Amino acid sequence: MILVGVVLAVIVGLLRGGRLDRLEHLGIKGLAFVWLALGMRVAAGMLAVRGFLFGPWFQVGAYVIFLYIMGRNLSLPGLKVFGLGSLLNFIVIVFNGGTMPVSVEAIAAAGIVREPVGTHSLLGAETRLWFLADVIPVRWPPQVLSVGDLLIVVGIFMFIQHRMLTEAETGRLVLGGE
Fold it and tell me: What is the 3-state secondary structure (H, E, C) of the chain?
């Protein structure tokens, strides 16, 4: 969903007269750490699928890095929303042993035929904070999202819109400024 959100944000930005070249310099402090955290998320998934007991906790470490970077960049438009979404995901993951619980009903409603693996687990009676878990089915592309995921996409959308448009044009954004 994040990729769809990025593509949509760029398309909307272009339709509104924005420029792609304004995305060259994002102005994010500590951007290299974002790449480190993304690498940790990939490693977490690979390790967890292979049964490495602490694999899901790499995901927790990645979220700690993301939250640190968000804290350093809260003044950038959209990053407060992105940070809130990341925080909500972080909380539900920590409270559920390092994995993101996923609703069986939402999996079926999204048209997904496989069970969650790796850094995801099935939502059950023992799941803590289930309402923050992946419970929102999306048919295209088939996936299950959390409230945190939606906030992350909205935050990215707002950030890209702001970066692509001049200050005067950004004020027209329906979501408003931060």
Answer: CHHHHHHHHHHHHHHCCCCHHHHCCCCCCCHHHHHHHHHHHHHHHHHHHCCCCCHHHHHHHHHHHHHHHHHHCCCCCCHHHHHHHHHHHHHHHHCCCCCEEECHHHHHHHCCCCCCCCCEEECCCCCCCHHHCECEEECCCCEEECHHHHHHHHHHHHHHHHHHCCHHHHCCCCCCCC
Residue type, 135: V
Place of tokens 């099935």: 122
Q: What is the pLDDT of residues 103-139, one digit of tens each?
A: 999 999 999 998 888 889 999 999 999 999 999 999 9
- The answer to pTM > 0.85 is yes
- What's the token pair of residue 33? 């750490």
Both structure tokens of 29: 């402090």
The number of beta carbons lying within 10 Å of the beta carbon of residue 157 is 22
Instruction: Give the C-alpha separation, 135 to 157, whole Å.
Output: 22
Burial of 152 (0-12, 13-18, 19+ CB in 10 A): buried
